[in-house]
Predict the structure.
Amino acid sequence: MAEASDFKKKSVSIAERIRSPVDDLSENQVGVILALPLVLLLTLLYFYPIARGFIFSLQELSLFATSGSWIGIENYVSTVTSSRFWGALENGIVYTIGSVAVTLVIGVGTALVLNRSFVGKRFVTGLILSPYMIPVVGIVLIFRWLFNGLNGVANYAFVQLGLVNEPVAWFSNPTYAMPVLIIISGWALYPFVTMLVLAKLQTIPDEYYEAADLMGASRARQFISITFPQLKSVLFVAILLRTLWTFNLFDIIWLGTGGGPGNSTETLPIMAYRIAFDGLRLGEGTAVAFLTFVVLAIGTGAYFRTFNEASV
Amino acid sequence: MTSLSLRQRHYIERAVTYSLVIGTTFVLMIPMIWGVLSSMRPSQELFSWPPAIIPSSLTLGNYRLLLETTSFSQYFVNSIVVAILAMIFTLSIATPAAYAVTRYEFVGRKYITNMSTIIYMFPLVLLGLPLFVIFSQLNLTNSRLGLALTHTAFALPFALMLLRVFFKEISPSVVESAQLVGAGRFTIIKDIILPLSLPGIVATVIFVMALSWKEYFFALLLMNDNALSTLPIGIANLIGMSTTNWGLILSGVMIMSLPPMILIFFLYDYLLEGFSVSTL
């Protein structure tokens, strides 16, 4: 309160001297003016490029050509009828479901651990959330070293544990490349889920648990009847956002396997990039990128519908 | 169960908590611990089989080699320049907009708050391919300014979300009492809003710079010139060299990753607030 009155005094003296022309504008005008730069920049850097991209996708256009020829929806038709597209879609679904599942398990698990009371909580919370800040390039390179096919320590550990018979070249083996990418993504992306869930857990009143304790409810019972229902909405959002991000994700796969070996880890964003930059077919590449967006939009719609039905 | 006294149950619970905390932290930190150890052990030890868990000796030789034989310091400077530019652009655009969204009723306000959710859905590739063409035509490829612009677009929704939380926390009554005594809009923003939301703005500054620091996709698209590469591109390119020197690469990874990792300790309270579901 002392702070507030301080400001009051200060603003009185200044206000008497300065009445700027801004004060003659209506609230609506000020709001629009303040938000205008944001709207302009987003139009220039999001909506204009995407509109431009849509035009590219209707053309047969090479990456460095100045103009292409109009071919209508042919890029879309040839993409949808190619087996490469369906393979990439399947890879994307496998990769997304796998990664989201791993991030959810680690994210919810760590949040529940961090929500207990213990000494050194700030330090441990920071450590557990720290992968959020590591550049993806760093994360992927560390894992490529860890899972190195020649003498990676993961190979050594797995051989010792009897999980594999001999060292595996994880990133160039069609069977193992996708699981490794899922592990990397799980480790790279779980802190976001931890933060969402932890923020929610901290809002659950202690009284709920105290009351449950008094009534003799076990810990497991308390989790099922108090914690889980409270977490439902946050899990809905976490699954949605993680799915959108992971399906669109480019860098982890590109740096891990580049979509290989062959096309075995190629997802739709990787396919779009490879067609546009390795194949130099910009028109076809943007068509694939648009189809990625369409798939996501359909998926999101279906997700909302099933959730709404389930909650009724 | 019934034979355990309350005190005994308390001790068991403590033991469970601490073993969970220590176990989880250790398992999740294995990649980082192994990365740091590998970057600091003598190079010949990297290729021993079975791998030696404890290094025979610690050395900074890889770090010296990195600084002496690669353009690492140049990448480092580029990354800093791009992050500062992106931060200035983002803050100068997002701060007024976030303030307007929290304080004023105006046409289109609803659309601005919903926008970040929509932007989440755009695949980066969908944005990146046309942006590459547009930026080529504008001579903004191989330009740190151009890269900073794309990072600004990328960071804006996050910055908007974080700043809104902090502006919302300032009680409207403070603003109202200032208005009552005749303070103008400029005065209110300069003398009340900005000082009160300073911690939030600092957190946003750090967060936006960290986003730019770790960004890979746009840097890959726009920067072909090695002298202008940022750290993620420069370090990723080290792996393409004829013999992959893992000690060298990992030392680069550590210099790039450890500073932002330390920042999370100052940042996470703000992120927890910013990411709470009610604001998304």
User: Anything to note?
Assistant: The mean pLDDT of chain B is 86.
